[in-house]
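Need a sequence for this fold. Nothing fancy.
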């Protein structure tokens, strides 16, 4: 019997990416396996968003290679990504989730119950009839997360999912991240919030100027950072 297809581990081997003549990622080598969330940190322009786009397969490296479960040509059927500023469709909250379920190939007969399940997971139960564009910023982020989860992904990629949210809305998003991670979904997310990284990360990847300057278990990283860049970033100093 053929083993189920998996996109894990995701391996980047000496990957570089450039746009407009500017190098955004420079010879990055990383591996993402099943387990606790991996959190990308680093200053603006470090390459975090581009790395997430590479992991999703939205862009291709100019050098090196990316493999998903040992394959270079894996379709992104097992991956989902949520961008920092997701667009809301001109539909209700439930309509946005139904659209995502249809796009994921979920049979029509199963969509109604799945809409309710996803809305409950992200704390939007009871708001199914509200126009998505009239939701608060935090509610829209949760709706975007529900749409990403509609694919029932093995890997969930989150780009600054709590940026600009108040503490209460941030807690809801973090609780969902913990829940889906405990359910076996591999979460890879970026954040500027060091406290959030401490709360969620199993592993930390510190980026600066497109390079990985340090990576390892979160506890070790926060207790004994090994590089000067990491020490400065954790101390709140400007990295240039």
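Here you go.
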């Amino acid at each position: 019997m053929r083993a189920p297809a998996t996109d894990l581990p995701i391996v980047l081997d000496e990957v570089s990416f450039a746009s407009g003549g500017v190098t955004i990622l420079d010879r990055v080598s990383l591996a993402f396996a099943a387990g606790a969330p991996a959190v990308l940190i680093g200053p603006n322009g470090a390459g975090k968003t581009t790395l997430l786009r590479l992991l999703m397969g939205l862009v291709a490296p100019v050098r090196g290679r990316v493999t998903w479960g040992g394959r270079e040509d894996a379709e992104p059927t097992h991956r989902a990504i949520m961008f920092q500023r997701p667009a809301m469709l001109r539909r209700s909250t439930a309509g946005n989730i139904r659209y995502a379920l249809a796009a994921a190939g979920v049979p029509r007969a199963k969509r109604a119950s799945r809409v309710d399940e996803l809305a409950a997971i992200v704390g939007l139960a009871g708001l199914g009839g509200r126009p998505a564009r009239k939701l608060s910023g935090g509610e829209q982020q949760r709706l975007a997360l529900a749409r990403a989860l509609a694919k029932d992904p093995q890997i969930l990629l989150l780009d600054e999912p709590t940026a600009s949210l108040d503490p209460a809305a941030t807690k809801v998003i973090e609780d969902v991240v913990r829940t889906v991670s405990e359910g076996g979904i591999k979460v890879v997310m970026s954040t500027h919030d060091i406290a959030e990284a401490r709360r969620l990360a199993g592993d930390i990847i510190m980026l600066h100027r497109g390079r990985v300057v340090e990576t390892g278990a979160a506890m070790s990283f926060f207790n004994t950072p090994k590089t000067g860049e990491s020490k400065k970033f954790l101390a709140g100093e400007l990295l240039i």
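For context: The helical segments are 48-56, 93-103, 108-121, 137-149, 167-182, 194-200, 218-223, 228-234.
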